[in-house]
């Protein structure tokens, strides 16, 4: 993967399709960029206007007198490939294509997308999208998007604990940001990947996890274009101790259809996804609320040493409910030893409960002393504090002391309010750096995710099965995620065989003619080309095989022949490449 610093932090931006007003996407994109305080040079591109939004407008990218790092493209799909060619010729380093009308719309759109891919391979320009909603580098004030879910006041970005979002849904990407900020989460980057004609999910994740400020990556995924590369990035994230939390859809027939029409992607089968994600240590979430809850838990806590939970509550009913939820979620709520119970009993009313779950009652002088006692218990790995923070009296009195204890206890501490926190309480918690859950199940599931991720980190070195290469087998299985079929292509079958140690000839899959030439030059001539499609098991019969190719020109000619014959043999064949 190339360096994406210039992509996320460009010194200059051209908005191709910039327009007056905000009725069109290009107009909204330009104003969003300016509104969020972008500090570089901005060049509107519109052949019909000499000025847009108070800035000099140019008829084409070639007329811009200065170097352009990033182009934001918002024009009709049919015009995009030629404009990207112009950008590459002008030395533009990267482009975000907001336009729709590509592979998600059918064969004609897929051909346009293939042209984009070919340009990238030929020129080295990096593309985000098409059919994307762009990105937002919060700290860098670079809002390359038209999405209206962000506002100029994007909150504190100085914290060392920040979140990056990488999503195949642009609307959800920025919704995570919008809702998460209201829950006092701090974000560094939001990325909508679109159809991934060039830059893929793996590229963004691999880049973002190397940023010091980023602690957690949130993802919304419909399918994997290159599962092997994504798993490589996921393992690197695990090496760095940066969890990836993923909401993944397409688990039903209806969801799979929606994914296909959304980004042109075929959703991947749930059972295989679950197995591979577990193997990679990726935390899965069922919806966007759970995704954000889990992120909040990871940001503010160390990993637990086990799954034993201590519960301290001012409500006996809430304590019991939490205990049930923990047990149902595979967590343990162990009894405290007699000495620990005696210490707790001395600091709560006589009608409270000193065993776990601890009910300090609403009449207790405070939470801090019982919390400290439970936190020191040797058979407790994590603590949940449950209280009613509709008012701020207790937080005013004990908030700073509790925050100090949370930071020094060395165990995860999750705070749950069973009533909606008042605005003063929220402000106090924000100032104290405390994250408050308002969903009981969300709190417990987030703690369970911490426990599961901690277990994964502890046992990573023990997961290699005898006779298998741990780093290869998940990758090989992951190759199958891109399409839920019963029939494998030849290259997929060979990938699995190689993962289990069966020798196979060196080969590579090409999805475009220039990629085929590049692979041929790397492998060394002569080479052979074979179509790869689950719908064409008999390649020779389809005349979709070309042998003894000894030059780049020969590969180009043979590639066209193979694809043409394959389409003639099976008009509706799903062709993965050559």
Q: Could you please describe the fold and organization of this structure?
A:
With 578 residues, this protein is of the alpha/beta class. The chain folds into 4 domains: 1-132, NAD(P)-binding Rossmann-like Domain (Rossmann fold, 3-Layer(aba) Sandwich), CATH 3.40.50; 147-299, Succinyl-CoA synthetase domains (Rossmann fold, 3-Layer(aba) Sandwich); 302-459, Succinyl-CoA synthetase domains (Rossmann fold, 3-Layer(aba) Sandwich); 485-569, Dna Ligase, domain 1 (2-Layer Sandwich). The protein contains 20 helices and 21 strands. The strands form 5 sheets. A 7-stranded mixed sheet has the order 9-8-11-10-12-13-14, with helices on both faces. Helix 5 (170-182) links the parallel strand 10 and strand 11 (187-192). Helix 10 (288-299) packs across helix 16, helix 11 packs across helix 16 and helix 19 (513-523) packs across helix 20. Mean pLDDT is 88; it is low at 464-470.
Largest sheet: 7 strands, mixed
Poorly predicted runs are 464-470
CATH architecture of the largest domain: 3-Layer(aba) Sandwich
How many domain modules? 4
Mean pLDDT comes to 88
| H/I helix tally | 20
Give the strand tally.
21
Q: Please, what is the CATH homologous superfamily of the largest domain?
A: Succinyl-CoA synthetase domains
**Reading side by side through the largest sheet, how are the strands ordered?**
9-8-11-10-12-13-14
């Amino acid at each position: 993967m190339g360096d994406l610093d210039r992509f996320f932090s460009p010194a200059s931006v051209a908005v191709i399709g910039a327009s007056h007003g905000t009725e069109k996407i290009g107009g909204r994109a330009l104003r969003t960029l300016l509104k969020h305080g972008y500090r570089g040079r901005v060049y509107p591109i519109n052949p019909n206007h000499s000025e847009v939004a108070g800035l000099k407008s140019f008829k084409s990218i070639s007329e811009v007198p200065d170097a352009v790092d990033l182009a934001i493209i918002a024009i009709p799909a049919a015009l995009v490939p030629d404009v990207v060619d112009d950008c590459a010729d002008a030395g533009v380093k990267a482009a975000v294509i907001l336009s729709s009308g590509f592979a998600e719309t059918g064969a004609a759109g897929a051909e346009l997308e293939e042209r984009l891919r070919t340009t990238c391979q030929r020129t080295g320009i990096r593309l985000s999208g098409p059919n994307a909603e762009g990105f937002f580098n919060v700290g860098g004030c670079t809002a390359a998007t038209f999405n209206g879910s962000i506002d100029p006041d994007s909150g504190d970005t100085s914290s060392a604990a920040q979140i990056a979002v990488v999503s195949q849904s642009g609307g959800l990407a920025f919704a995570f940001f919008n809702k998460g900020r209201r829950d006092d989460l701090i974000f560094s980057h939001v990325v909508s990947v679109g159809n991934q004609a060039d830059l893929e999910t793996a590229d963004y994740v691999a880049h973002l996890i190397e940023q010091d400020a980023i602690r957690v990556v949130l993802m919304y995924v419909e399918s994997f274009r290159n599962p092997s590369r994504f798993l490589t990035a996921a393992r690197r994230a695990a090496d760095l101790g940066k969890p990836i939390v993923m909401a993944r859809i397409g688990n039903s027939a209806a969801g799979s259809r929606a994914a296909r029409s959304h980004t042109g992607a075929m959703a991947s089968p749930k059972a295989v996804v679950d197995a591979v994600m577990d193997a990679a240590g990726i935390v899965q979430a069922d919806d966007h609320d759970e995704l954000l809850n889990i992120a909040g838990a990871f940001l503010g806590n160390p990993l637990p040493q086990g799954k034993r939970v201590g519960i301290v509550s001012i409500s006996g009913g809430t304590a019991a409910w939490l205990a049930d939820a923990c047990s149902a979620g595979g967590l343990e709520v162990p009894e405290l030893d007699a000495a620990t119970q005696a210490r707790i009993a001395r600091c709560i009313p006589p009608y409270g409960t000193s065993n776990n779950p601890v009910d300090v009652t609403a009449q207790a002088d405070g939470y801090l002393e019982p919390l400290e006692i439970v936190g020191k218990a040797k058979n407790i790995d994590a603590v949940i504090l449950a209280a009613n923070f509709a008012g701020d009296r207790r937080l005013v009195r004990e908030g700073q002391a509790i925050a100090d204890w949370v930071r020094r206890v060395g165990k995860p501490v999750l705070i749950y309010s069973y009533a909606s926190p008042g605005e003063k309480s929220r402000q106090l918690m924000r100032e104290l750096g405390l994250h408050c859950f308002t969903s009981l199940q969300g709190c417990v599931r987030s703690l369970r995710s911490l426990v599961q991720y901690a277990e994964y980190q502890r046992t990573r070195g023990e997961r290699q099965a005898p006779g298998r290469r741990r780093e290869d087998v998940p990758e090989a299985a992951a190759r199958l995620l891109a399409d839920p079929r019963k029939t494998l292509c030849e290259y997929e079958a060979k990938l699995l065989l190689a993962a289990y140690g069966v020798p196979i000839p060196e080969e590579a899959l090409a999805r475009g003619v220039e990629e085929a030439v590049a692979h041929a030059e790397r492998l060394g001539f002569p080479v052979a080309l074979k179509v790869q499609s689950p719908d064409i098991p008999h390649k020779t019969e389809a005349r979709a095989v070309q042998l003894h190719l000894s030059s780049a020109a020969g590969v180009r000619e043979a590639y066209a022949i193979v694809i043409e014959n394959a389409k003639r043999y099976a008009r509706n064949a799903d062709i993965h490449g050559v």
